[in-house]
Structure formats: structure tokens, C-alpha cells
């Protein structure tokens, strides 16, 4: 049942938000009770932006969020994505997209105008809402689509984004933008289509940020809001010693593991958990409006809130810079 329309959330995006890929069983299964506990904890501490997607658990993440909203009077700022439609598997095996026990659907790329409407209709039904605060075009870019990139980009510019702009004009969303893991495609699009925001995952983090800095500076100059996803680089910067090390949704390469160890060593010397430094570093760039952190349980959500508010000795940032772990021109928290 769709909830009655509520006024849009305040114009300003929250400084920190909850990335809900984990609620779709990214890497490993999360129980219904754990997912609900995570969402209720986010409500309790005021983590009032949730970013999700039909892709996350093949609709499971959105469904779990919708179930929570149906049980409460919580009206967080919702961000979801279009660009894939979900088709029932029927007799076809559920594809392995990195989600454990996803819902029985097959995600299929569709950047047509009709596909954008279909994808959003499915999201609204699962979330139980009739509009969302932020709507993002998901996973366009050369690394994702390879030789089909030029055709995909043209369809995004000719069909998908104009349809999203029409949906914004209809009051179905406040903001439109891209949700991607690639900076290059963002640079291609903003010169050809007016966007409100960009969600860039994993490319501007404490681990790796130098190549993305000039683009974020451009966004700041042009007034484009940037949401940072993957602040922990697929969990690498927040992993416990006994947890698998992931980077870019895959096994972490040696260089990333070694650099993370160097970052952790300096943070530890100042008594600061590495994830706290990672979150606060991302938030320091003036183009960044929101940093999204993934969590799967209420305990993890509360830990994120603690990290986000933790006081950090400014000398730690100096030490990281002196050890060539932060670029000279990268903003750091003051």
C-alpha cells in the first residue's frame, strides 16, 4: 500500500546517510530482523537519508525499506535509481551479482524512456511511496558497458535523462542525477545535460582521491551537489581483522591492502579508528553534500554515527599528508 504523499524533505541533503546495498544481502545474507533493526537505528539517531536501488538484492533492499516505512511514521529522504528493470526469473536461475539470496528477479539494463518509467514504478511499489527525493541514473560508463558505452551514453542523454527531467517536473522527485562508480562519465554528462547531483561511489575516498579531485572542484564551482558512496571502498577501510577484504565489489588487490595498512597505522597512533577518518575526510570537500556509509545491523549504524561525530586531532591529517597518504590539495576537516 502506497503511503500518502508527504512534503519533500528539506532542500539541503543530510551530511551523512545510509547506503542500503548491504540490506540487499551484498556479499552475505542479512536477516529480515537485522535489516529492520538497522533501519530503526538509523531513524533513532537521525540518519535521515537512505540510498537504495532496484539492483540491490534484486529489489530486496527497497522492499525491506518499504516494509520498515509501512510500520513507522518515519519519512526519511529517499534516494533510488533507474536504468535497470527487474524481470521475474521463472525457470531461469537467479544471476549472481554479488548478492547472497537475492529476490527472484533478473536485473536488465534499460535506459529507454519507457524503461525509466517502468523501473521507477517498481521502486515506488516496493518502497510504498509515490515519489522520492533523489532519482539517479544507475551505472552508465565505459567500465560498466565496455564497447557499448557510446550507444549507452547516447540513449542516456536522448531518452533516460530527459524522461527523468520530465518526472522531476511532474513532482515525482526533487533531484535528478547519476549514480555511478566512474568519474569520467560524470564529466561527459554534465557538459551535455543539466543535473542536480551526482552520486560517485568509491572514487573519492581516503584510500584514493587524487585523480577525482579536479572533477570535484569543478562540481563545486558549478553548484552540482556530490554524494559520496563507498566511503569505505567496498568495506576495505572498515573491515575487521577476520573479515574478507573487498575493494570495488571484488577481492582487494595488494596495493589497496598495503595502503590501507599504512592509513590504519597512522590513525591508530592518534587513537582514531580508520573508518572515522574515512568518513570525515570525504565530507570535508566543499562539493560534497552527503557521505553514504553502508551498514547491515543496528550496531553498525550506531557505530557509523559515532565515527561521524568523533573529534580528530588536526595533526593526524598533517601526518597523513606528510606520509603521502593525502594529496597536497585535498581538503581535510578543519
TrEMBL record:
**Known InterPro entries for this protein?**
AKR, NAD(P)_OxRdtase_dom_sf, NADP_OxRdtase_dom
Q: What PANTHER family does the record point to? A: GH17980P-RELATED
Residue stretches making up the NADP-dependent oxidoreductase domain: 17-320
Matching entries from SUPFAM superfamilies are given as: NAD(P)-linked oxidoreductase
Q: What is the name of the protein in this document?
A: Aldo/keto reductase
Which source organism does the UniProt entry give? Henriciella marina
Superkingdom of the source species: Bacteria
Provide the taxonomic classification: Bacteria, Pseudomonadati, Pseudomonadota, Alphaproteobacteria, Hyphomonadales
Amino acid at each position: 500500500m502506497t503511503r500518502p504523499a508527504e512534503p519533500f524533505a528539506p532542500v539541503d541533503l543530510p551530511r551523512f546517510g545510509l547506503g542500503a546495498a548491504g540490506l540487499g544481502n551484498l556479499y552475505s545474507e542479512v536477516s529480515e530482523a537485522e535489516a529492520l533493526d538497522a533501519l530503526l537505528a538509523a531513524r533513532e539517531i537521525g540518519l535521515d537519508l537512505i540510498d537504495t536501488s532496484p539492483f540491490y538484492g534484486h529489489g530486496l533492499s527497497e522492499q525491506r525499506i518499504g516494509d520498515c516505512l509501512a510500520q513507522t511514521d518515519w519519512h526519511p529522504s529517499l534516494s533510488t535509481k533507474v536504468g535497470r528493470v527487474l524481470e521475474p526469473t521463472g525457470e531461469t536461475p537467479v544471476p549472481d551479482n554479488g548478492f547472497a539470496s537475492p529476490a527472484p528477479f533478473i536485473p536488465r539494463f534499460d535506459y529507454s524512456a519507457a524503461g525509466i518509467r517502468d523501473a521507477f514504478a517498481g521502486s515506488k511499489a516496493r518502497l510504498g511511496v509515490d515519489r522520492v527525493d533523489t532519482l539517479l541514473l544507475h551505472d552508465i560508463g565505459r567500465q560498466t558497458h565496455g564497447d557499448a558505452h557510446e550507444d549507452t551514453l547516447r540513449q542516456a542523454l536522448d531518452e533516460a535523462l530527459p524522461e527523468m527531467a520530465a518526472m522531476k517536473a511532474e513532482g515525482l522527485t526533487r533531484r535528478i542525477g547519476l549514480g555511478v562508480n566512474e568519474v569520467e562519465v560524470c564529466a561527459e554528462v554534465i557538459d551535455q545535460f543539466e543535473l542536480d547531483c551526482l552520486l560517485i561511489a568509491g572514487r573519492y575516498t581516503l584510500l584514493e582521491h587524487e585523480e577525482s579531485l579536479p572533477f570535484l572542484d569543478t562540481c563545486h564551482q558549478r553548484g552540482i551537489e556530490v554524494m559520496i558512496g563507498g566511503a569505505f571502498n567496498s568495506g576495505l577501510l572498515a573491515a575487521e581483522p577476520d573479515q574478507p577484504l573487498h575493494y570495488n565489489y571484488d577481492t582487494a588487490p595488494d596495493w589497496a591492502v598495503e595502503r590501507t595498512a599504512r592509513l590504519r597505522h597512522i590513525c591508530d597512533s592518534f587513537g582514531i579508528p580508520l573508518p572515522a577518518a574515512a568518513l570525515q575526510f570525504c565530507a570535508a570537500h566543499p562539493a560534497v553534500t552527503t557521505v553514504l556509509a553502508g551498514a547491515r545491523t543496528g550496531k553498525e549504524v550506531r557505530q557509523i554515527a559515532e565515527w561521524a561525530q568523533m573529534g580528530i586531532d588536526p595533526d593526524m591529517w598533517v601526518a597523513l599528508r606528510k606520509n603521502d597518504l593525502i594529496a597536497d590539495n585535498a581538503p581535510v576537516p578543519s
